[in-house]
């Protein structure tokens, strides 16, 4: 029959006498259809063949039988047969027609299966997409939202279905944008833009949104697909980066301004000191010059604050009592926190001396006071206390924290504000972490506090409960008691400022160089002067005099102080070097000046401070002398030294030293 109807259906026919032979043939060849001839209706055999063909790739088959009733036909079709033919009705036309129908049905089923698989993949992709997807009708009524949309917005699918998409609108989005969006959609185009929406809990979030129209067969827009990607975190990080770049730019500007300003202040203080030596004690002129000196010292403090704002200031440590330092800072905090907040200072008794930088202590208290002010918008009370604490094993065990035993000077700042939520408490010292609204905080305040405390080998502890206020406690390690007087930064006695050594003074600021040279000569030193590094090298090469110390500026034209020191190491290895600079700390480090604790003096300085530093460097043992490229031990000179570490450089990886109360 197939051969006679070859024009209608080209086919090749193979014959198997049973199921087992059919299995072998199906395994060896590729078949498009199976004709299954059965004398009696055997549903089990039909099911067996169906399972076999399904395992081979869903090959369609037609059952050839005789005298099958409707029930048998239904069972056969259910068993997997594509069609059934009565053998009595078997002829070429019927056979070809039945085969064609079976093949077409099989093709349709395959296409449907492929479509169902594609639809399943699409649904799975939409359901598991990290981006938010919602489908609305052409009027913006929501018909579908994916799980990501529910997770971010807080709305469930039941709450959104049937609602207008405008339910997500926030007041931060300009109405003009919505009008432009709908105008674009109604013209059949895709709309794109960054939109500010609001969650169910009232929080604002930012999304990169694209809206695409869905058209029917006639080309009419019936639905809209809204695809939204959450940009909140990325925009937050970008804002932090921008803020960081601004801070860096401000720091660079502050550093440049501070250098020139520090040079001018050093000139003012130097000539004022020289003038004081030539006027009568108790005279009006002496008082006037002292006022000039006092103003210059206050201006130097302002410069340090400017560098502190840009986080570029060097750390100038001195051993001092904490109470006078805090008391002086508290005087200026009243203007910061406002009149509606009661600020009190309760100094403790018997405090041990700590090594500290007053400017950094001011930074700590200003940041904590500013946080206290923000926590009490309706007013309240802020208390600053100091205390002497001896940490023993029992105390440390109670706090459940890793902190060395010993004596500490403690600063406690307490406010009566709303407190810090538990979920934020473990993150408050992280850089850029803030709970304040956008534009109200940078997230740097407490990170700076943490950095300063860790830089000073101290520890910070915080306790807070909702509506119960917050307490910050800062532990600063005390230095061992010494019989020598405390260095408060006042002018130094001239007893130890004299000497007979030869000094090479290299400074490109002529007025400063001449004042320093005059003062050192008055103290008994022999002083050679050079305006820059090249002239200094020429002087050393042409003069065989013994040079005990070279005092050089770090940043100079033609040759930096670091380069000069390396040249002198070759020419005069016995010559010690003292660096001075008005630039901030990192700039000094960039010029490869090593061991700044023993051979560096930050401008502005007084001539007495210069003479003291000169004497200290000259009196160091020869083995402690620092040469470029060689690391020397840290030596403290009369409890006054300068460390170039910057506040922002402290790592926050070690959380064990942050004490938190439960």
Structure description:
The termini are far apart. With 662 residues, the protein is of the alpha/beta class. Helices cover 42% and strands 20% of the residues. A six-stranded mixed β-sheet has the order 10-12-13-15-14-22.
In brief, what are we looking at here?
42% of the residues lie in helices and 20% in strands.
Key structural traits:
662 residues; alpha/beta; 20% strand; elongated
Topology:
Elements: H1 19-28, E1 34-37, H2 43-55, E2 61-65, H3 70-79, E3 83-86, H4 92-128, E4 132-137, E5 142-145, H5 147-153, H6 157-160, H7 175-186, E6 191-198, E7 204-215, E8 221-230, H8 232-277, H9 284-309, E9 315-320, H10 322-337, E10 341-346, E11 354-356, H11 358-375, E12 380-391, H12 393-399, E13 406-415, H13 422-425, H14 445-455, E14 459-464, E15 470-477, E16 502-506, H15 510-522, E17 526-530, H16 533-542, E18 549-553, H17 561-571, E19 576-581, H18 585-590, H19 596-599, E20 600-602, H20 607-619, E21 640-643, E22 658-660
């Amino acid at each position: 029959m197939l051969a006679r109807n070859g024009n209608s259906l080209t086919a090749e026919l193979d014959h198997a006498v049973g199921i087992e032979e059919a299995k072998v043939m199906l395994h060896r060849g590729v078949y498009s259809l199976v004709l299954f001839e059965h004398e009696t209706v055997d549903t089990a055999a039909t099911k067996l063949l169906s399972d076999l063909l399904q395992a081979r790739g869903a090959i369609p088959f037609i059952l050839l039988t005789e005298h099958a009733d409707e029930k048998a036909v239904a069972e056969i079709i259910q068993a997997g047969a594509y069609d059934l033919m009565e053998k009595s009705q078997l002829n070429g036309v019927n056979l070809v027609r039945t085969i064609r129908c079976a093949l077409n049905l099989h093709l349709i089923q395959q296409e449907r299966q492929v479509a169902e698989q594609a639809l399943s993949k699409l649904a799975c992709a939409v359901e598991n997409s990290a981006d938010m997807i919602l489908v609305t009708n052409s009027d913006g009524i929501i018909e579908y939202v994916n799980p990501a949309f529910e997770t971010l917005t807080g709305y469930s699918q039941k709450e959104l279905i049937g609602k207008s998409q405008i339910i997500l609108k926030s007041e931060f989005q300009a109405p003009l944008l919505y009008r432009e969006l709908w105008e674009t959609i109604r013209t059949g185009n895709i709309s794109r833009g960054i939109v500010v929406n609001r969650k169910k809990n009232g929080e604002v979030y930012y999304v990169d949104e694209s809206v695409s129209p869905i058209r029917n067969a006639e080309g009419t827009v019936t639905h809209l697909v809204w695809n939204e990607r959450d940009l909140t975190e990325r925009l937050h990080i970008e804002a932090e980066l921008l803020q960081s770049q601004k801070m860096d730019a401000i720091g660079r500007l502050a550093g440049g301004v501070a250098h020139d300003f520090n040079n001018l202040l050093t000139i003012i203080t130097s000539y004022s000191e020289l003038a004081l030596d030539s006027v009568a004690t108790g005279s009006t002129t002496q008082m006037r010059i002292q006022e000039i000196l006092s103003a210059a010292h206050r201006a130097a403090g302002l410069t340090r604050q400017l560098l502190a704002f840009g986080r570029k200031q060097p750390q100038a440590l001195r051993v001092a009592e904490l109470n006078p330092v805090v008391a002086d800072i508290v005087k200026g905090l009243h203007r910061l926190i406002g009149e509606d907040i009661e600020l009190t200072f309760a100094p403790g008794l018997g405090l041990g001396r700590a090594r500290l930088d007053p400017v950094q202590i001011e930074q700590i208290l200003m940041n904590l006071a500013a946080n206290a002010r923000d926590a009490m918008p309706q007013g309240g009370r802020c208390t600053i206390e100091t205390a002497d604490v001896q940490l023993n094993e029992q105390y440390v065990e109670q706090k459940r924290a890793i902190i060395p035993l010993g004596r500490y000077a403690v600063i406690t700042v307490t406010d009566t504000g709303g407190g810090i939520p538990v979920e934020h408490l473990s993150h408050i010292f992280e850089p850029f972490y803030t709970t304040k609204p956008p534009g109200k905080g940078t997230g740097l305040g407490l990170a700076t506090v943490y950095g300063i405390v860790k830089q000073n080998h101290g520890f910070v502890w915080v306790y807070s409960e909702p509506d119960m206020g917050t307490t910050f406690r800062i532990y600063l390690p005390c230095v061992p008691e010494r019989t020598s007087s405390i260095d408060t930064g006042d002018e130094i006695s001239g007893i130890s400022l004299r000497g007979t050594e030869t000094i090479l003074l290299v400074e490109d600021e002529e007025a400063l160089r001449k004042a320093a040279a005059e003062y050192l000569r008055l103290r008994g030193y022999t002083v050679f002067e050079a305006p820059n590094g090249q002239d200094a090298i020429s002087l050393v090469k042409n003069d065989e005099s013994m040079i005990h110390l070279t005092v050089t500026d770090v940043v100079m034209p033609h040759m930096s102080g670091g380069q000069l020191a390396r040249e002198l190491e070759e020419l005069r290895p016995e010559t010690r070097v003292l660096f001075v600079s008005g630039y901030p700390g990192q700039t000094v480090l960039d010029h490869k000046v090593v061991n700044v604790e023993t051979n560096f003096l930050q401008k502005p300085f007084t001539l007495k401070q210069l003479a003291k530093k000169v004497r200290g460097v000259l009196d160091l043992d020869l083995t402690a002398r620092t040469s470029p490229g060689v690391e020397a031990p840290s030596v403290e000179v009369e409890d006054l030294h300068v460390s170039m570490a910057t506040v922002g450089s402290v790592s926050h990886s070690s959380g064990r030293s942050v004490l938190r109360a439960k």
